[in-house]
Write a structure and sequence with these properties.
By secondary structure, the protein is of the alpha+beta class. The chain has a single domain, classed as Roll (Pnp Oxidase, Chain A). 28% of the residues lie in helices and 28% in strands. The chain has four helices and seven strands, in the order H-E-E-E-E-H-E-E-H-H-E. The longest helix has 14 residues, at 108-121.
Length: 149
């Protein structure tokens, strides 16, 4: 994995720094909402650099649901393209860190089930889908035996 490049969004970079510097004991909620977040570490598809993205915590058993909502923006977030290019990620959930592999959900029944779990965890996801013309992608991150390098 390449050198870490912080997000250009200052609030994201600050939250990542707080989570990382505290080893997951601080910064694990979304701003003032108190809603839990996880930290997804992935490889930049163009730079090969390490990227870190806080996402809402939505789970399906021991797997994590990753919703590429970008607040309902018309384009997918950059991390979506990074995950499509490299399926291996590291997920920090508070003080626990897991090597995982992602897959984008294409089966409509599976996506509907996971979407409902994600919306239950973070209700604004439905508002985001309602305000955009794009179909918001959903990934599932599952335990991997690979080590994250």
């Amino acid at each position: 994995m390449g050198e870490y490049i912080p997000s250009p969004a200052a609030w994201v970079a600050d939250q990542v720094e707080l989570i990382e510097s505290s080893k997951g004991t601080k910064g694990t909620t979304l701003k003032d909402s108190g809603m839990p977040v996880i930290l997804v570490t992935h490889r930049g598809r163009k730079t090969g650099a390490t990227r870190k993205t806080p996402l809402m915590r939505a789970v399906d058993g021991k797997s994590y649901i990753l919703v590429a909502s970008m607040g309902g923006a018309p384009k997918h977030p950059v991390w979506y393209h990074n995950l499509k290019a490299d399926l291996d990620v590291e997920i920090r959930d508070a003080t626990e860190v897991f090597s995982m592999r992602v897959r984008e959900i294409s089966d409509p029944d599976e996506k509907h089930r996971l979407w409902d779990l994600a919306v239950a965890a973070y209700p604004p996801y439905q508002d985001y889908q309602d305000k955009t013309d794009r179909i918001i992608p959903v990934f599932i991150a599952e335990q991997s035996s690979n080590t994250f390098e």
